[in-house]
Automatic annotation (TrEMBL):
Residues 92-228 form the L,D-TPase catalytic domain. SUPFAM superfamilies: L,D-transpeptidase catalytic domain-like (SSF141523). Belongs to the YkuD family. The lineage of its organism: Bacteria, Pseudomonadati, Pseudomonadota, Alphaproteobacteria, Hyphomicrobiales. Pathway: Cell wall biogenesis; peptidoglycan biosynthesis. The keyword Mitochondrion does not apply. Residues 1-31 form the signal peptide. This is L,D-transpeptidase.
């Protein structure tokens, strides 16, 4: 996406686009068809450069161990990297490009950290301006009532699913509010490499566990968020 295109979208969204209320889906919920096919991926684990393997290595100093991400399953353009900022947003902003499936964290030197993401499936897309109200490490996940109605097997989690390796929120979550209203959308971790670059969730933005830990460590609560 060009800077001009992204800025034009930002102007349109600033006019009052609102977020649709929904919630993050469980990995146990039926998978949805991706809206776009992912680019061709590397053929084998050996094709992943050592520095990328190091970025996505196993994390053992957390309350729950995190396995190494299998980056040969993730298209190269979705690997975490520093890029020239294409967004035009102020430093500290988080920008989600739902077309190209990137999340940008804008820096104050004209660059941005870019992450590959999975986004909401058809019927669960959302866009607009909001902010990161707060952050959590190893969050509890509580499916909203409308999700439980669609997936009755989630009833046992109506009052929350404890943190852990099976929790669909992963090791970190950033909570998205508009004003004082919780949108019920989150930016969170997910270990399924095949969801990166695809539209598969119930609206939330998914990053690989190592990426969401990195993002969580660098984003400040209260930071502005733009989804285009």
């Amino acid at each position: 996406m060009s800077v001009r295109t992204m800025n034009r979208r930002a102007v349109l969204l600033a006019g009052g686009a609102s977020l649709l209320l929904a919630g993050c889906t469980s990995t146990s919920a039926p998978a949805r068809v991706a809206l776009a096919a992912a680019p061709e991926t590397p053929k084998s684990p050996d094709s992943v450069p050592p520095h990328v393997q190091a970025m996505y290595a196993a994390v053992m100093d957390e309350p729950y161990p995190i396995r190494a991400s299998r980056m040969h399953l993730v298209p190269e353009r979705f690997w975490r990297q520093e890029v020239t900022d294409p967004t035009g947003e102020k430093p500290g902003s988080v920008v989600v490009d739902t077309t190209d499936r990137f999340l940008y964290h804008v820096r104050d030197d004209g660059t941005a950290m870019r992450y590959g993401v999975g986004i909401g499936a058809a019927g669960f897309e959302w866009s607009g301006r909001a902010h990161i109200a707060y952050k959590r490490e190893w969050p509890t996940w509580t499916p909203p009532s409308d999700m439980i109605a669609r997936h009755p097997e989630l009833e046992r989690y109506r009052h929350g699913m404890e943190p852990g390796p099976d929790n669909p929120m992963g090791p970190r979550a950033l909570y998205i509010h508009q004003g004082n209203v919780d949108t019920l959308y989150r930016i969170h971790g997910n270990p399924d490499e095949t969801t990166i670059g695809k539209a598969v969730s119930s609206g939330c933005v998914r990053l690989l566990p190592q990426d969401v830990i990195h993002l969580h460590a660098n984003v400040v609560s209260g930071s502005p968020l733009l989804v285009v």
